[in-house]
């Protein structure tokens, strides 16, 4: 049904509504259906214009209608901008009364009751060739978005590609935009799967798709490199168990953080793993790399379907464990990794299970070792007991034989000892007799030699005394001569010292005399004339005796005062009267 759009100001909307006008939310304008009497709406009708023949509508379905209120060139001075844009709006509304299925890529999405989108189309080089704004009205969003999210597991967000039923809308004030009435989930699923399939086939052609999956699993976990978003909830679940393993010294965990969604997230994950692996000592890499994130929408996980990230995992000689999504989620890193787990919690559970399994195996082996050692100990103990019994038996036999042999030997020793004692006694008696005979002979010889030796000693002593007396006389004369020489030398030295002392005393006396004479000359030169010339005066009695005391001066009847140039007589009583 055809519509006649009106130019109703906001303040008059109630009046237009009361007359039967209806509001078109798509173009944000009031209208009346065809067949209504337009006379009552005359104040809101667009200004009628005519189109020149040069601008006749084309034959295409998208031609702008030139009916009343449609776009046309002015006959005289032109039309208002609102009239032009309202005509465009009417043309767009009539041309696209129904939506068109359109392929778009979401650049940005904002949910504020209504869903506001920034859409684009890119060429093969990733350059944008078209852009548009779009919105999903809240009433439509509550109807189509839950179905889309349930079917795809994805949410509307940046980077996702959609097939939408879009209706173009033009508004004089807000410009061009698209209103989305429906979304085809099959296209989004197909696009995501197509991207994964393309990367998977490339890795298979390069022959590396199975490389990490074929690595030998770690026999035990002693050190694990964990790569995860810093604030991920899954990381918190992982660390609850990993910190317990670290606390008991079962395994050490090294953490590296990176974004897991958004443009460039895959490159950041690769860079984080490279930096972390370079920090390990050369020749001592971790036992495994755990790539964990936790659950998320399918399009959030789609950022991980990246060739560079998948190739990096494939090239690793260290087993890579993934716990990126939920059980229903699947990404390329899950496919190429050595072992895939559904969640981060299951990754740490798998690591803990391996550690526990090795611990149980070690316990079983230790038990087997202890059991074998016990049996071996019992056998050795039995053999030791048998050996000990045999040794005791043999020892008793040898001891009996030794006792018997000892008894015989003791008898033989006693007989031999008695024989040797008798022989020694005989030899000792003979030697005693020989010693007594020799001693008597030496004593007799000594008695004969003593008088001759005494005489010889007496003669030698007298000769020594005489020789000593002669030596003493010579020594005495030498001492006396030396004493006299020393006395003469001391006397001479004393006389020399007395002579030098007399000379020094005479010099000192002469110097003192010269100094005294100089002082006398100086004193003589310092007579009263020089003192009087400096302003002093001498008080004398009339007899010429100096007066040095005030009381003596008051007692004298007359005084003379000598100045530099003469004497002035004075009387003490005259001075008193003046006072």
UniProtKB/TrEMBL annotation:
Protein name: Exodeoxyribonuclease VII large subunit
Domain of life, per lineage: Bacteria
Ranges where the Exonuclease VII large subunit C-terminal domain occurs: 208-568
Keyword Flavoprotein attributed: no
Keyword 4Fe-4S: no
Enzyme type, top EC level: hydrolase
A Pfam family hit: Exonuc_VII_L
Record's keyword terms, sorted: Coiled coil, Cytoplasm, Exonuclease, Hydrolase, Nuclease
DUF5710 domain ranges (all copies): 3-46
Chain coiled-coil ranges: 495-522
Known EC number: 3.1.11.6
Organism of this sequence: Acidovorax benzenivorans
GO MF annotation terms: exodeoxyribonuclease VII activity
CDD domains: ExoVII_LU_OBF
OB-fold nucleic acid binding domain: residues covered: 81-183
């Amino acid at each position: 049904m055809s519509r006649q759009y009106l130019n109703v100001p906001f303040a008059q909307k109630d009046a237009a509504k009361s007359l039967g006008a209806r509001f078109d939310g798509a173009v944000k304008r009031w209208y009346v259906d065809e067949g209504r009497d337009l006379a009552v709406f005359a104040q809101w009708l667009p200004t009628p214009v005519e189109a020149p023949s040069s601008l006749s509508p084309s034959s295409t379905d998208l031609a702008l209608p030139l009916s009343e209120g449609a776009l046309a060139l002015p006959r005289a001075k032109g039309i208002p901008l609102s009239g032009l844009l309202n005509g465009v709006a009417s043309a767009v509304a009539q041309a696209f009364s129904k939506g068109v299925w359109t392929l778009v890529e979401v650049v940005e999405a904002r949910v504020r009751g209504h869903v506001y989108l920034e859409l684009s189309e890119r060429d093969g080089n990733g350059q944008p060739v078209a852009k548009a704004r779009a919105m999903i009205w809240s009433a439509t969003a509550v109807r189509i978005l839950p179905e889309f999210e349930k079917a795809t597991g994805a949410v509307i967000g940046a980077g996702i590609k959609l097939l939408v039923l879009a209706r173009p809308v033009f508004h004089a004030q807000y410009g061009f935009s698209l209103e989305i009435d429906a979304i085809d989930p099959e296209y989004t699923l197909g696009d995501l799967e197509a991207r994964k399939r393309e990367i998977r086939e490339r890795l298979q052609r390069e022959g590396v798709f199975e490389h990490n999956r074929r690595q030998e699993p770690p026999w035990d976990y002693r050190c694990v490199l964990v790569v995860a978003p810093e604030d991920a909830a899954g990381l918190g679940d992982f660390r609850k168990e990993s910190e317990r393993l670290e606390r008991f010294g079962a395994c050490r965990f090294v953490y590296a953080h990176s974004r897991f969604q958004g443009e460039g997230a895959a490159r950041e994950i690769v860079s984080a793993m490279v930096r972390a692996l370079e920090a390990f000592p050369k020749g001592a890499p971790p036992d495994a790399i755990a790539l964990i994130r936790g659950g998320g929408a399918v399009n959030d996980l789609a950022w991980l379907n990246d060739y560079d990230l998948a190739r990096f995992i494939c090239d690793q000689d260290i087993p890579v464990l993934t716990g990126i999504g939920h059980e229903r989620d699947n990404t390329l890193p899950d496919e190429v990794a050595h072992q895939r787990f559904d969640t981060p919690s299951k990754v740490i559970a798998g690591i803990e299970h391996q550690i526990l399994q090795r611990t149980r195996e070690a316990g079983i082996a230790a038990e087997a070792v202890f059991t074998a050692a016990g049996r071996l100990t019992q056998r050795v103990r039995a053999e030791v007991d048998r050996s000990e019994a045999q040794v005791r038996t043999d020892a008793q036999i040898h001891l009996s034989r030794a006792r018997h042999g000892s008894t015989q030997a003791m008898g033989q020793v006693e007989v031999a000892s008695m024989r040797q004692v008798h022989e020694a006694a005989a030899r000792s008696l003979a030697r005693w007799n020989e010693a007594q005979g020799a001693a008597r002979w030496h004593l007799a010889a000594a008695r004969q030699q003593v008088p001759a030796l005494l005489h010889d000693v007496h003669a030698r002593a007298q000769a020594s005394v005489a020789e000593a007396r002669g030596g003493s006389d010579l020594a005495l004369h030498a001492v006396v001569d030396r004493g006299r020489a020393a006395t003469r030398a001391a006397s001479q030295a004393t006389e020399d010292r007395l002579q030098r002392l007399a000379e020094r005393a005479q010099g000192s006396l002469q110097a003192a005399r010269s100094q005294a004479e100089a002082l006398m000359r100086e004193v003589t030169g310092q007579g009263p004339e020089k003192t009087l010339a400096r302003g002093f005066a001498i008080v004398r009695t009339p007899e010429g005796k100096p007066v040095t005391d005030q009381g003596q001066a008051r007692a004298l009847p007359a005084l003379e005062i000598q100045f530099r140039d003469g004497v002035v007589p004075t009387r003490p009583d005259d001075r008193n009267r003046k006072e």
